[in-house]
Amino acid sequence: MVSNTKYVAAFDTLKGCLSSAEANRAAARGIICLDATALVVQATMSDGGEGWLDAVVGATGAQRQYADAHDALMRPRRCSYAVSGPTAFVEVAQVVGLTLIAPSERDAVRATTYGLGELLADAARRGCTDIVIGLGGTATTDLGEGMMAALREAGMAETLSRCRVTGATDVESPLLGPTGAARMFAPQKGATPAQVEMLERRAAATARHYLLATGHDCSSRPGAGAAGGLGYALMQHLGATLQPGAELLFDLTDFDRQIADARLVVTGEGSSDAQTLMGKLPYRVMQRARRQAVPTLLLAGRIADRDALLAAGFADVVCINPPQLPLAEAIRPDVAAANIAAAISQSSLFSAVAGPQ
Known about the structure:
The chain is α/β, with parallel strands linked by helices.
């Protein structure tokens, strides 16, 4: 038996089902069932959406801070962010996240980022001068107008504009157009077709207004459409830079060191298809592993475009769900975890890389 063969589990969140850490634990169980002496490194991951704060706290040891704020429908909510020295880490999904709003209550027109502004103001009052914001999973399409209103009301807008602000996202969409904040993402937040077009017009008018008022326009920059236009607001009003959330987290966690000498990396997400290759977390995990000649196994609850995924560099791609398994059953956390563990053995890649047991 090979002793202490090293593997790395680095899953994205399976939205509405498993966190990154839970998916990693399930994969580790599957690996250890096949190799009892395996060393499985579990790397909590996030591209800036749900799970971003947990991943950052785990990687940096940043201390959680708590503040009262409001969710996207302006309901009071106790929220957290994290602080390490002068740096504050904020996850927008924790305050104005889509999963905080019941499907029947989602309102992409009315939803506001006001609560995010409250958290940013709190961080600035604590003396934080470097703000890193995980963008993703919001219920909003307000172009950050609510956030800026909260900052102005708190008297902190100018203070934030002097901070170093970084947005972490895997979205490269501009603010407007078919891949923008309204037309691409608002339907997921409950917007009707008519509301989508209204939101698109509102976004275009807002961008024109600030162009005339300030002389510069960030609406066409990659990532401006992220988080319902928050990417635009952060760049336009606070001078922020946007970075791929996964890459930022890789650097914080020294991910290259974690995968060094690994025999296999296992990653995954809820649904994998050609869009995965547009910079989603599993693709970025695979790219990092490939640089060190470590093969990557991709697991997902739904697989499409398998040939494209393999051609892009994944060593194997496996659907964790048995055929005909109802969706309601598949997304149960206990079922999904068991299916991840079982899927490890379904890949011929494992036995090929693990060697004789």
